Amino acid sequence: MTSQHILIFDFDGVIIDGIWEYWISSTKAYWKIIGKENHLDPFNSNIPKDFRILRPWVKSGWEMVLLTAELLQADSFLKASGASIFSKHYERNCLEALNKWGWSPEQLQAALDDVRREAIRKDRKRWLTSHQAFPLVAERIKQFKNESIEFGVLTTKSAEFTLELLDHLNLHPKLLYGHEAGDKASMLLKISKETPIAGFIEDRRKTLETVLNTPGLKSIPCYLANWGYLKPLDNKNLPSGIQLLEKRKFLSPLANWS
Ligand SMILES: [Mg+2]
């Protein structure tokens, strides 16, 4: 008997909306790095519009800390130019901002992870509820077992925090890999050697395009989750290997998706 097929899910932007928690944790991580803590409670401040606008460009957690630093500094390039100009050369602008601050991605990621560990230790419930589950997604994931489909999670978050949140949603994936494990294309290759992959659901189009162009992964059905963090034109003119996944289709049996 062949092993059961597995559906692989991205986490933030597909299963949960973590932007509010990202804003809070990134603000605290920024203060931690510059040595000025607690001069504003991020729970009582609104998420800057530019932070939301730039979310679809973000690949890794540390970028959130960098964007937060830029947004909290009055004379930064991001503050002066706005998110739309900044996003036009997003990677280059992030690199320049990193150099300006004299920071490394590892340092920012470590500060973010420290802040999260502290938040969980101090008030686990508050930390968990600062994330919002996308409506009906967790419920639908639980039903895949009725279609003999397992599910797994591939995320650029740290696995330890993702596991806390999945537990809270009563979701228990067959496998879970965080950013520590490696990039998503490599992880899909590894998974596909052991288990046939029924599909990969992700809200970052660039990641899906990378998967599509990776030898050995071309046969994996790729789905762009329409309810996630999409750039304005992400759902237009998709290449033939990537299908737009609307909530209605997602709620229907997997056999009807293509
Ligand atoms: Mg995502």
UniProtKB/TrEMBL annotation:
UniProt-listed Gene3D superfamilies: HAD superfamily/HAD-like
UniProt xrefs under InterPro entries: HAD-like_sf (IPR036412), HAD_sf (IPR023214)
Protein name (database record): HAD hydrolase
Organism: Prochlorococcus marinus (strain MIT 9211)
